[in-house]
Amino acid sequence: MSGIRQRILENMQRFSRAMIGAVLFLPVIGLILALSSVLTNPTLISETSFLHYLGQLLGDTFWPLFSNLGLLFCVGISYGLAKDKKTEVTLVAVMCFIMFLGANHSWLEYTHQVAGKINDEYYGTGQTELLGFVVVDMGVFLGIILGCTIAWVHNKVSTIALPGALSMYGGAKLTLVAMTPVIVFYAIAFTWIWPFMTHGITALTGFMKNAGVAGVFVYGFFEKFLIPTGLHHFVWSPFQLTPIGGTLNVDGQTVAGSQAIFLAYMRHPDLTPLMNEALRFSQQGMTTIFGLSGAALAFYHTAKPEKKMLAKAVLLPAIITSILTGITEPIEFTFLFISPLLWFIHALLTAASQAICDIFSVRPWGASGLIEFIIYNLPLPVSLTRWPLYVIIGIGQFAVYYVIFRTLILKLNLKTPGREDDEDVKLYNKQDYRKKINKHADKNGLVANDIINGLGGKANIISVDNCFTRLRVALHNPDIVDEAQLKNTGANGVIRSGNEVQVIYGVSVGQVRSHVDTWLENN
């Protein structure tokens, strides 16, 4: 039984490493989008200025990345889980992802299931448009499922040697051939399976609208809890984009959905003394500004002393992105797969704050980050939206998140950023750090050679990966690792777990990984 648990643990660790490859890029993307939002804010920068155009250019350049997270995860996970031929498997992953889109769209057309747009969007239809194809909306789960499947198939077939003239179809090309029937099967099966999962979500909307504060709480919980699946669109989109959220007659025209209703109030702030009740379902942005900031502070304060600077390097750009733009993936994905319990608590606290807003009739437009909050709400009368109360509730949310997250992390010893189990970690001051960097800066090839020897030689290495701070190496025989030599290469510590060795290099681990990969390819 212990052997089964060990294999399960090893597989979970491999999956976590593969996931982190894509997650590492999200804070960078988010920060650039935050800059884009600032530059395109007409209250700060004239729409006719070059800076405004530059902001728009940056947004148009980077927003497509967030619109295609499934593809990024498909490539990142297949790369991380593949045992060899990693460069080739990433190319296969791109092809398989596009193949799925084409096959799924073709099947939807063949069965006459392609959805029509609602308010010029596919939100709420169960489908979405990716790379020009209308497909079943599976969110990042499409990339996760495909990435895991591709890596598994690749590890099984890529080493098979085909005879004679067929030999040219071996290796990664055989992975593509083997994946073809799998892709077709997935494309057809998910057309039926995924919508079935969304039926329950659709049924919830009626309850949410008619159940008062309880309905708002349920809305807030599922809108947050279902984000990893992509099914949260079925929670918020009916309220923000369709008559389910409410209707309002303005200048002889009927507008539907909370977003359209709020925009109508921006044109006619005297429609009613208090904002329409449709805005009860548009307060989820409070968490992006206040709640996650409290969580990030808890992560930082509970990090081990020697890892606080590393935790700050990960958390700071992620939380700035969340606060300014409402893009939460960078900060949420740092703990989603580390501790599902914290994600569950996160969803509960998000729901509670929205319910409190409803109790006190607080109805600003709070669907996204700080920039959007300011642009939408400050031009309107305070009495209409009661946005100062929103800020007060948000401050309380910040404190609650901090206290609860900090308590759970310490009581349950959760391995949040900066709390991983390290052994023999030495504290370095700035002078020590500079000496260590200078010592190895000009000897990349030599250091890589020393690292390989410290790991038992090239023949002992199965695969090399890295996370935020560690070089993670799967070995045939971890007993022959020379920890002293690895520490002489600049490592702060070495951790053994089964046949895996984790060598801690800090935030420079990306450069170390690059040097090691180059050495392995050339020797």
Automatic annotation (TrEMBL):
GO process annotations (BP): phosphoenolpyruvate-dependent sugar phosphotransferase system
Record-annotated active site: C467 (phosphocysteine intermediate)
Pfam families, sorted: PTS_EIIB, PTS_EIIC
Compartment list: Cell membrane
This protein's UniProt keywords: Cell membrane, Kinase, Membrane, Phosphotransferase system, Sugar transport, Transferase, Transmembrane, Transmembrane helix, Transport
Top-level taxon: Bacteria
Signal peptide location: none
Principal location class: membrane
Keyword match Transport: yes
Domain PTS EIIC type-1: residue ranges: 6-421
Gene Ontology molecular function terms on file: kinase activity; protein-N(PI)-phosphohistidine-sugar phosphotransferase activity; protein-phosphocysteine-sugar phosphotransferase activity
A single Gene Ontology CC term: plasma membrane
Residues annotated as domain PTS EIIB type-1: 445-523
Membrane-spanning residues: 20-41, 61-82, 89-110, 130-153, 174-194, 200-222, 309-328, 335-356, 387-405
Mode of membrane association: Multi-pass membrane protein
Family matches, as NCBIfam families: EIIB_glc
Listed name of the protein: PTS glucose transporter subunit IIBC
